[in-house]
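FORM 12-B: Structure-to-Sequence Request
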């Protein structure tokens, strides 16, 4: 039997050589197609491995915010160094919530400890514990919900809260208990009114404006009621007092608002200030690395870029067709990186740091699947046409987008030796309006108008309505004053005069004295009871004139303004002792009838209409009982029609 082992080995070796030769013969573009970018876990694990074991911090050079990578690294070491545990910390702007790389970092490093992945500002993406009993879940909850941490707090401040929670596992329980307390007892209940905080002047101004508006509305209502009753001096005092209180409610705190410390949000953002001059970013860690790499190769591709890489190996060869030197970088972009996810900012920063004449292109994407390219120039004069030309440089792959950008340079007017200022450098940093302007214009004024003209008057009206309904329920709703009775008396006497004007015999001769008494009393200075008497007497006179043969009409003993009395009851009503009532009142219980007796308001008090049984109106039942005697008593007081003196 033949030994085939040597032959088989030679065949395998020959096959391997053929495969290697085939791969070597492939064009560089084809080899790039099979390359795969490094994963974030692999990329950052390699960097963590270069740090001291158990005290490793890696801050991506592309971080944005007020701290440079070196400052942030130092602050994170200070914060996590307080733990008596090994720590491995990564700060990156290129991961989204839910991107879990902590387990992969642990697998690659094989070291126990606390693994934390943070964004440059405001957020703990991950925190895991391996080989320790640290409660990382509760600690992350504390860091994410701490009311004292703003959304823009740098990673160093977030780390301090996170470490404090890891050191004290009860911090999460304390925070939860604080949030579950009734709101008046929470320490942060009124934190939103702090003038140093965002929207604090507006919120405080609106609250105080609402108080001032309410005081003004209540004072105006009070003044109106006092003036109606002729009490002008008390009305003036109340009006002046309401104005002083309302002005003090919004004016006195204004001094505290003006003197409060300046909040961070009221200061220009350091990143926006950096945009106004070279190198246009606070942190130059990434652009310095890219600029150094571009010295050897005009195309730089970041290992973390997640874009398709087809055609990138040959892309740099086409840069030679451009009218000026071209340098390009294909990089990942994020809203939290040093450029804020803006291609143009990163291109300008790259040009400023590289300091080599040419056009600098940055290709990347922030969202979606489209690769965009923006450009900046160094040592060349360029106008708005550079940015305009780059608007068309968009494609599905970086290679195609760069190819379009290079081709578009033929349409751009470039001046050697000139200067270039990016358009964004001319923008002023955005800061809120002056604090006092926001306090008065956006807080006090809307609050005062909303409550002074809207909410407070509506609430006052609702209170009066509820009081009226309560009075009706208790039987005190049948209260009338001079204003209503004067209007009723004017209407009834007008009807009486109109009847007499139509024809002289419109009234039987027996009713003429009663008509004269009603008209004369109305023209004098009548009391509240006189006005009621005029209404009832005029109505009865008109009713008997329309039906002379009807039985004598008698007013309801409960309320003379009700329909005429038709029923008798065994129980007297009111103080008049009358027992005849209208049909509606007869259906009531004795207690309800007594509670519904008409009350007349005179001055600031109200009393039953029949509180003075010896008055002619009451004694003669408004003319239903011996009208001639009642008329005689009334006319004795003003026989010549003179005004009757007030009683």
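FORM 12-B RESPONSE
SEQUENCE OUT:
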């Amino acid at each position: 039997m033949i030994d085939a082992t040597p032959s088989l080995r030679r065949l395998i070796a020959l096959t391997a050589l053929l495969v290697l030769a085939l791969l070597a013969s492939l064009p560089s573009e084809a080899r790039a197609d099979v390359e795969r970018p490094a994963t974030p876990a692999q990329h950052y694990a390699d960097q963590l491995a270069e740090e001291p074991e158990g005290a490793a911090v890696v801050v991506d050079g592309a971080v944005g915010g007020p701290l440079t990578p070196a400052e942030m690294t130092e602050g994170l070491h200070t914060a996590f160094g307080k733990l008596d545990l090994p720590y491995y910390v990564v700060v990156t702007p290129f991961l989204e919530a839910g991107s879990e790389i902590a387990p992969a970092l642990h697998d690659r490093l094989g070291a126990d400890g606390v693994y934390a992945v943070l964004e440059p500002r405001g957020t703990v993406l991950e925190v895991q514990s391996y080989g320790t009993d640290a409660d990382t879940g509760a600690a992350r909850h504390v860091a994410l919900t701490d009311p004292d941490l703003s959304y823009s707090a740098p990673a160093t401040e977030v780390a301090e809260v996170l470490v404090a929670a890891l050191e004290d596992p009860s911090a999460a329980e304390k925070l939860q208990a604080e949030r579950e307390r009734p709101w008046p007892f929470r320490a942060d209940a009124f934190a939103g009114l702090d003038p140093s905080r965002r929207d604090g002047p507006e919120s405080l101004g609106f609250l105080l404006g609402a108080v001032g508006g309410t005081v003004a509305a209540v004072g105006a209502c009070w003044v109106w009621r006092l003036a109606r009753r002729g009490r002008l001096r008390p009305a003036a005092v109340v009006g002046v007092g309401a104005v002083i209180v309302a002005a003090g409610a919004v004016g006195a705190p204004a001094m505290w608002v003006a003197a409060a410390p300046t909040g961070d949000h009221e200061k220009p953002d350091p990143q926006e200030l950096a945009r106004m001059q070279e190198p246009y970013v606070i942190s130059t860690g990434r652009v310095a690395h890219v600029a150094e790499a571009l010295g050897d190769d005009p195309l730089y591709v970041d290992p973390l870029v997640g874009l398709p890489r087809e055609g990138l190996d040959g892309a740099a060869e086409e840069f030679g067709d451009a009218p000026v030197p071209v340098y390009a970088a294909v990089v990942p972009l994020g809203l939290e990186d040093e450029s804020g996810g803006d291609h143009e900012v990163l291109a300008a920063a790259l040009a400023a740091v590289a300091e080599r004449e040419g056009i600098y292109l940055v290709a990347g994407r922030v969202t979606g699947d489209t690769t965009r390219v923006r450009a900046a120039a160094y040592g060349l004069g360029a106008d708005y046409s550079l940015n305009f030309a780059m608007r068309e440089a968009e494609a599905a792959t970086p290679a195609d987008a760069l190819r379009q950008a290079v081709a578009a340079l033929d349409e751009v007017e470039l001046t050697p030796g000139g200067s270039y200022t990016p358009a964004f450098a001319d923008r002023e940093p955005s800061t809120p309006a002056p604090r006092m302007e926001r306090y008065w214009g956006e807080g006090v004024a809307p609050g005062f108008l909303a409550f002074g003209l809207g909410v407070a008057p509506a609430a006052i009206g609702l209170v009066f309505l509820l009081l009226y309904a309560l009075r009706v329920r208790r039987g005190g709703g049948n209260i009338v004053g001079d204003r209503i009775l004067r209007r009723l008396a004017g209407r009834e006497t007008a009807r009486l005069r109109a009847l007499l004007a139509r024809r002289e015999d419109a009234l039987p001769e027996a009713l003429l004295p009663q008509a004269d008494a009603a008209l004369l009393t109305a023209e004098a200075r009548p009391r509240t009871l006189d006005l009621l008497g005029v209404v009832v007497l005029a109505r009865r006179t008109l009713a008997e004139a329309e039906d002379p043969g009807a039985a004598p009409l008698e007013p309801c003993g409960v309320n003379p303004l009700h329909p005429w009395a038709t029923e008798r009851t065994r129980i007297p009503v009111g103080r008049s002792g009358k027992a005849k009532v209208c049909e509606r009142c007869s259906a009531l219980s004795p207690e309800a009838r007594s509670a519904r007796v008409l009350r007349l308001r005179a001055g600031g008090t109200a009393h039953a209409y029949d509180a003075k049984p010896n008055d002619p109106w009451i004694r003669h039942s408004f003319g239903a009982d011996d009208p001639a005697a009642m008329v005689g008593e009334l006319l004795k007081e003003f026989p010549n029609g003179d005004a009757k003196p007030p009683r």
